[in-house]
Amino acid sequence: xxxxxxxxxxxxxxxxxxxxxxxxxxxxxxxxxxxxxxxxxxxxxxxxxxxxxxxxxxxxxxxxxxxxxxxxxxxxxxxxxxxxxxxxxxxxxxxxxxxxxxxxxxxxxxxxxxxxxxxxxxxxxxxxxxxxxxxxxxxxxxxxxxxxxxxxxxxxxxxxxxxxxxxxxxxxxxxxxxxxxxxxxxxxxxx
Length: 191
Fold this sequence. Notes:
- This protein is mainly alpha-helical.
- Helix content is 55%, strand content 6%.
- It contains 9 helices and 3 strands.
- A 3-stranded mixed beta sheet has the order 1-2-3.
- A hairpin with a 2-residue loop joins strand 2 and strand 3.
- Helix 1 crosses helix 3, helix 6 packs across helix 9 and helix 8 crosses helix 9 (163-186).
């Protein structure tokens, strides 16, 4: 089960709600700023690209008022929300709690494997406009491990070159792996 920070979950839903309303990121920022928060297009972009870990209640309340959605709707979808580094709840539990239906919250350990920095997988996800976890899942299906591990495995025979040369090799190999994943997705072999 995928665990995301509250800001990342809100960002996914903000994009969904904003696009449905037919607004640009700049228009969204202007509307929020009218309520006294100092937002720019970059703030909306940071939410929607998963770069914001938290989602302050005042921002959620203003966004709810602007877009006419209930507070719990910012946590739509499947997966878990990491409230702290060691406590996560399901999005369904979060929605219930925000609607006053919450039962006693059950603590579950957070899977810290998602915290590992996987530069090739992250780059591929960005390049193909998919979630990082999806890129990792496809890489594991294709090669039995992450794209970062596959990149390093394929480049192992290059030994120790100067840092600039290795950066170029890693970049080129990451592009090659992205193309392999893209081809796999296009062939529909990921069903």
